[in-house]
Amino acid sequence: MAASRRGAGRPGLERLVAATGKALRLAPHEVVGHVTERLRLRLEQHRADTTYRLWAERHSTLTGTDRRAIRSRLRELPYQPLISVIMPVYNPREAWLRQAIDSVFRQHYSHWELCLADDNSSQPHVRSVLEEYAGRDPRIKLVFRESNGHISAASNSALALATGEYVALLDHDDELAEHALYTVVEELNRHPDADLLYSDEDKIDGRGRRYQPHFKPDWNPDLFYSMNLVTHLAVYRRSVLGAVGGFSEGVEGSQDYDLTLRVTERIPASAIRHIPHVLYHWRAIPGSVALASGEKEYAHDAARRAIRAHLERRGIRAEVRSAPEHATLHRVVYPLPSPAPLVSLILPVTRRPELLHRSVAALLARTDSVPFELLLAGDRLAEAMPLPLELECDPRVRRLDVATASEGPTIAASLAYARGDIVGLLGFVEPIAGDWLAEMVSHALRPEIGAVGAKLYDGAGAIAHAGIVLGAGGVAGRLYRGVPRDQACRISRLWMIQGYSAVAGACLVVRRELLERVGGVDAANLPAVYFDVDLCLRLRAAGYRTLWTPYAELTWLGADAPGRPAGEAPERALADEEQYMKLRWGSVLGLDPNYNANLSLEREDGSLAAQPRRRVPWAEPGPVRPRRTDVRVATSQHSSF
């Protein structure tokens, strides 16, 4: 019986192998490997989707108790603004259209209006469905356009119907979570000056099954330039939308992205609020970007045009490209000034002398476009760790005899000898391509940026550093550590320039003036392990963002052996630094704004947390809404970044 079942399955597999080989022009053995990999990825995705559905049932699905608590809270909330839900409509399937409208009717928050603009749909069921719902509830406003103007024009027609203080966007085949508008209003009671609010989201298939959640960080401007961080659910103050002129035509497919770019030019970053709850279900159907981002390539081209226009309006010189590993993502390239500034690269060599030659040779051979000096800092280096003559005599190399025993003090002592306007902190690293330093310096020169970190691989080619998350492992941990390089392309966050709370001192670049402004490296309290995290947090406290770029790639030769103070047990040294970090930064370690509270701190793979670190709003203490002294109409042109 078993043999017959195996035999029965072979023709299907053979047809798949043959079709795949023909399509991809692969040899038979390559086809088998390709098919096997595809099956493995599908199985892995199925497991992830199943895990999320179980998680969502527990943490993102309302119970009767939740609904009663929400109704009770709604009786107490002092501020309950009218929210206009706007929906452009064009030939959706009747079932999806009804489910989208029904999701508004199911809202626990009742002070809403639904503004529907039909874009001259050709399917007869659309008008009848819209008129049916409009006849059922006076909160529904309806307009039928006489000609098809595409989604931006239709969205503006819907926006023209809106009278609410806030406007929420809903596509004609998606769904709002039943507590979506209520949760938005909870946030507005706590932050009444918010001009833009966005939530987490997931996808929903034709059978109503939820999968592939997008758990977002708080406002992260550089990540927003890499992808549309806001997407769904997005809620805007209506006066701000009026100030920017609503939706732009000519960027269809990325009209929401373009709108948010223009909005952020007019509001401060403090007026942008992220709600870490899944409030929007994006329908994944054929032809939808939710199903496959490649379904609408024109949308990605429109997004890059919108980013270019946004940067031009802000007076920022930069080039906008598609990300090399993900054509649906974006990369902003900032030019270096001419001449480029001198960079002082500080390499402590108090340990692992066998790696010195390899690292120095690679740094000298594979660093282009930026003038630099390489400061080799340690105690009696010349005698203890000689270099080949051609490296020793390179004019870019300088020896520093600083009598220190560990990394932090070595860096601190070396700063007095640095000549550059830019300082780079290094471990034993090997650049993969020559433009690594130019990429990092181009970001470090941006006035709002503090420290800049790089993508580091370990000796086996796995991710060793792709940003540091506060609270992971107790104090801080490296995200995605251990992900093999051949699997990294499937994790889109590994290919996007973005803000993190900290980056590793194994490759960190910062303007010297900022380093001096915040007091340099705290070598006394953090000599070996967390001096880089502390430095980034002090830069953040001074108003500067820490940035990580995947386009500076290096191999971290010491990734498997982090430094420890000489003469002390590593466990004791680590414990001392952890205690100091918790005393100094304990108030910020538990909730990293650049890492979603629904993701795990116990694991470094960005997987789901067993228990979210943010409570649902109906379980929080009741807010007292501050009285507004004015109503801001966003007309200023200052940057929100």
- Cα-atom radius of gyration: 27 Å
Strand content: 15-25%
How far is it from the N-terminal to the C-terminal residue, by CA?
A: 67 Å
The largest β sheet comes out as: 10 strands, mixed
- Secondary-structure content class: alpha/beta
Mean pLDDT: 88
> What is the tally of helical segments?
20
Taking pLDDT < 50 over at least 5 consecutive residues as the criterion, the unreliable ranges are 1-9, 290-294, 562-569, 627-641
Question: Helical content, roughly?
Answer: 25-40%
Please tally the β strands and state the result: 23
Shape: elongated
Describe the structure.
The structure is a single chain. By secondary structure, the chain is α/β, with parallel strands linked by helices. Helix content is 36%, strand content 20%. The chain contains 20 helices and 23 strands. The strands form 4 sheets. Strands 12, 13, 14, 15, 16, 17, 18, 21, 22 and 23 form a 10-stranded mixed β-sheet that branches. Strands 1, 2, 3, 4, 5, 6, 7, 8 and 9 form a 9-stranded mixed β-sheet that branches. Strand 6 and strand 7 form a beta hairpin. Helix 1 packs across helix 2, helix 4 (94-105) packs parallel to helix 5 (124-136) and helix 10 (255-264) packs parallel to helix 11 (297-313). It starts with a helix and ends in a 52-residue tail after the last helix. The model is unreliable at 1-9, 290-294, 562-569 and 627-641 (pLDDT under 50).
